[in-house]
Design goal:
Number of helices: 18
Number of strands: 7
Radius of gyration: 30 Å
Strand order of the largest sheet: 5-4-3-6-7
Largest sheet: 5 strands, mixed
Distance between the termini: 60 Å
Strand content: 15-25%
Shape: elongated
Length: 407
């Protein structure tokens, strides 16, 4: 009956304070005393249980109280923490060195960091919203809690077969040994047999190279990938060979947009529009035969004036032209690396305020948290996936049948 009367008294008092415009949370907030009371009661209960266990052994007993300032999503407030004589009491409700109440606040801090907010911005936000102040060290310790999740995510098992993967690198400036250097994050995106897109892995290295991509591909096999139908990549020298070394059945599709950029850099302004028009006749052709005819036309017209601009099309033609065998929805997916570049643009929006990261892990924490947010927004399935998977079944029937996860 007393608890009921206490609750009724609190409710009446809270209603009156709300009418007076008092805040619900924070210092002086209506609910702050209630949270304080609950925490202190829990600590008292823990100590009583501890004393029962230790009193007979070493005559342990109460030894007064200490005080601690707690920060939470409800604001900051002080609590009294009971102590025992032999200092063997280890509370679980609020641990000895804990200054932030677990739950919503630390999750909110990690969420703000994942949106690209700097520590200074987060501290300002916490001060304005909750009336609490935190140090850079505390923020760093909270965001470091995602490191085990990053390690687990980086090593998680993958599916046996992916229909399409896109691979590209994004570069960041990182402080190392007192200087700022540029490092590459190698990104791998994939689409499984259900048409679901996900980031398969992020790998940190130095400047992008085919030899490092070979290490990435080897790691993908260790994590369970046995086959990839199509790999979409840029024109990095040796990259396609590295893929075929690890996945010999995989079709390598070079990015047509990268190829256009590489060839048009040799064309002067006076011929640029005409040359690009002839190029467009190649990569927008309806069939492979028409594309090859238009490639012949391009070479005959321009090869004597600009040999570097045309010979690369002929040299790379086999890997540039893979997409012509597929239906239109597949062509749109694979003839460029736009999918992974779109992911990189989203990452850049989050990281653009960072001049240089303080460490490799500081960068990986932010990119990982941002990636989790992006994957929540992605559609469950690639557009027109039913048409796409039926096209793949016709072309790769035996390889798809070997995978028993197809639906």
């Amino acid at each position: 009956m007393k608890k009921k009367n206490d609750l009724e008294e609190f409710s009446k008092k809270a209603a009156e304070l709300i009418k007076q415009g008092k805040p619900l949370t924070g210092k002086g907030g209506i609910f702050t005393p209630l949270i304080k009371q609950v925490i202190e009661a829990s600590l008292e209960g823990e100590l009583e249980a501890h004393l029962k266990e230790t009193r007979d052994q070493d005559n342990n007993r109460r030894n007064g109280y200490g005080s601690k300032n707690l920060k939470s999503a409800l604001g900051a407030f002080e609590i009294l923490t009971p102590r025992d004589r032999n200092s063997s009491f280890e509370p679980q409700t609020v641990e000895k060195r804990q200054t932030i109440l677990p739950g919503e606040l630390d999750e909110r801090i990690i969420g703000l960091y994942g949106l690209g907010m700097s520590y200074e911005d987060i501290k300002t936000h916490l001060s304005e919203m909750y009336g609490i102040s935190v140090s850079d060290g505390l923020l760093n310790s909270i965001t470091d809690r995602v490191i085990p999740a990053i390690r687990e995510w980086q090593n998680r098992p993958l599916e046996r077969l992916y229909c399409i993967i896109w691979m590209d690198a994004i570069h960041f400036k990182i402080r190392e040994d007192g200087r700022v250097i540029t490092k590459a994050v190698y990104s791998v995106l994939g689409v499984n047999l259900q048409g679901e897109k996900e980031v398969l892995g992020l790998y940190l290295g130095h400047n992008e190279s085919a030899s490092f991509w070979l290490q990435v591909l080897s790691d993908l096999t260790q994590r369970g990938i046995e086959d990839i139908l199509i790999a979409c990549i840029d024109n990095l020298k040796g990259f396609g060979d590295a893929i075929e070394n690890i996945f010999p059945k995989t079709e390598v599709q070079l990015c047509v947009i990268h190829q256009i950029r590489n060839s048009t850099k040799y064309i002067p302004k006076k011929h640029y529009r005409e040359f690009t028009k002839d190029l467009k006749n190649i990569y927008t052709a309806s069939t492979l035969e028409l594309a090859e005819y238009n490639l012949d036309v391009l070479e005959e017209k321009w090869s004597k004036q600009y040999p570097k601009a045309t010979e690369s099309w002929r040299n790379n033609w086999f890997r540039l032209s893979q997409y012509f065998k597929y239906i239109e929805p597949v062509r749109k997916l694979i003839y460029t690396t736009n999918t992974v570049e779109g992911y990189h643009r989203m990452v850049r929006k989050v990281t653009k305020t960072k001049g240089a990261f303080t460490s490799d892990m500081a960068m990986l924490k932010l990119v990982y948290l941002a990636t989790l947010q992006f994957q929540k927004r992605w559609k469950l399935r690639i557009n027109q996936w039913n048409k796409i998977i039926n096209n793949f079944i016709i072309i790769f029937e035996d390889r798809i049948k070997e995978n028993d996860t197809v639906q």
